[in-house]
Amino acid sequence: MSLFNFMVSKSIMHVPSPIVHYFAKDYVAGPSLDDAVNLSHELSQKGIETTLDILGEYITEKEQALPFKEECMTILETIKQENLDANLSVKPTQMGLLLDQEYAYNNLLDIVAKANELDIFIRLDMENTESLRGTLDIYRRLREEFPNHVGTAIQSYMRSSHDDVEALSDKHMNLRLVKGIFLVKRQYAWKDPELITANFVELLDQMLSYGAYVGIATHDEKLYFAAQKLIRKYKLTREQYEFQMLLGVDPELRDLIVAEGHRLRIYVHYGEKWLGYSRRRLLENPNIARAALGGILRGQKGN
Ligand code: FDA
Question: Fewest beta carbons within 10 Å, which of 51, 272, 274, 288?
């Protein structure tokens, strides 16, 4: 970690909660599902779709998965009742992946079965290295039964990602492609930002060559440029891919992508645990602290 990143992350951790709240509120819908629903309606009026996510901790006891699972079921019913242009993102570790993989599979099976019944899509987020194999295994199993209602994410910083995509290519894939947010050892992940970006483009090419539906999740304009080239190369129609961004990050690029005729989905977090979540993410990845502090210093806020 550079000295600058270290100092930025440490100072952000000491910023008083109301100030963190002032800046974090652009990145989180609010404490309740109603906040996420209102925001989803607002974005929908601008032609933007959403994926909803309930913020939470890594769980340490299996029972702690149950309230998250219940909340996921409520989100699915709400998406249906409110007729939202939304789907649901779920963290497999919140369902107990690191405690008991079969238990997490069964929790996710119930959620995806319900989503299938309501015709809503579920995305399994990709988390740290310890959960990578389990998440891919669970995706593969759920995809057997619900091929149109479940997908997962692939991280371009992981050295294994090409092989992972290859291994999944025996059936139709629905993948979100991201650079990767967790701190991972060099043994497993590329560290050079240029290599991570180059690998993102190669993975996107690989996925599209297999006919995958890809959620191209980035705020990096170089990648938006490269993705547009690949969209043209594969002659994709608007329905065959989407771009994805995080709430509050670069709304100008977001509006540009929509104006240029692409589908765009915003990842909308909500939940009571927003403060702990924001602080932990800042500690986990000082590059985000750096981006947030840069925004604060420039007086920029998202919308
Ligand atoms: P890059 O990091 O180069 O950022 C490009 C620009 O965007 C920079 O100017 C930067 O400052 C700004 N920016 C990026 N992220 C920001 C932030 N959080 N706050 C403020 N500014 C920011 N990761 C993962 O490991 N597993 C997952 O399942 C997901 N899921 C996911 C869903 C969606 C919809 C998105 C957009 C991202 C993810 N991620 C993720 C996170 C992803 O791995 C990655 O860390 C971020 O998207 C940042 O990478 P960029 O491609 O945006 O490039």
Answer: 272
Q: Cβ < 6 Å from ligand 1: which residues?
A: 125-126, 153, 155, 176, 178-182, 217-220, 244-246, 249-250, 267, 288, 291-292
* Span 193-203, pLDDT tens digits: 999 999 999 99
C-alpha–C-alpha distance, residues 247 and 38, integer Å: 14
Residue type, 204: L
Domains, the chain, with CATH or none: 1-28+283-298 (no CATH), 29-270 (3.20.20.220)
pTM score of the predicted model: 0.91
Catalytic site residue 26? no
Q: How, if at all, do strands 241-246 and 213-217 pair?
A: parallel
Query: Tokens 């990578």 — which residue?
Result: 132
